[in-house]
Amino acid sequence: MHSSRSKLRTSNGIVAAVLVAAFFGHALFGVLWLHGDFAGQGAWLVWIAVGLMGAHVGLSAATSRSMLADEQRPPSTRKKRHLALKWASGAALLAVALFHMAFGLVGGAEGFRIVLLAVLALLAWHCLVGVKSLLKDLGLPKGLRGAVRTLLAAAAAVLAFLLFC
């Protein structure tokens, strides 16, 4: 059972890492597009991210179910709360991202930029919540957690700044 869970976690970690890069890449392309520095050739990145998002949700559901059903090493209350926080942050991100996609909110008006800022903030929150799991899934040392969190926060801050410049 642990071998299949390990494979699920590794797969989910790889998908999540590529998804984070795709989302932050999309945000960067979007900011550049808003400033007229990019013609929008990166639309393909959105569709890759959508596919990865579906895979990430499915793999996350499978790993969550496996963790919650583990009778040999049942999750602590703390782990269950953290899992709930990851799902809540992911659901909030998905809701705002769908709103952004459904209405084609691309930041031309100030109100639209606020929605984009909300997407960016929720992306950063979800990433920061999931860093520990991501590092474990990828077999990376947990000592990197602070550096990865700093990098994610800095990337989000730079993109937020550029969004309103």
From TrEMBL:
It comes from the Bacteria. Keywords: Membrane, Transmembrane, Transmembrane helix. The keyword NAD does not apply. The chain crosses the membrane at residues 12-36, 42-62, 83-106, 112-135, 147-164. This is Protoporphyrinogen IX oxidase. It comes from Xiamenia xianingshaonis.
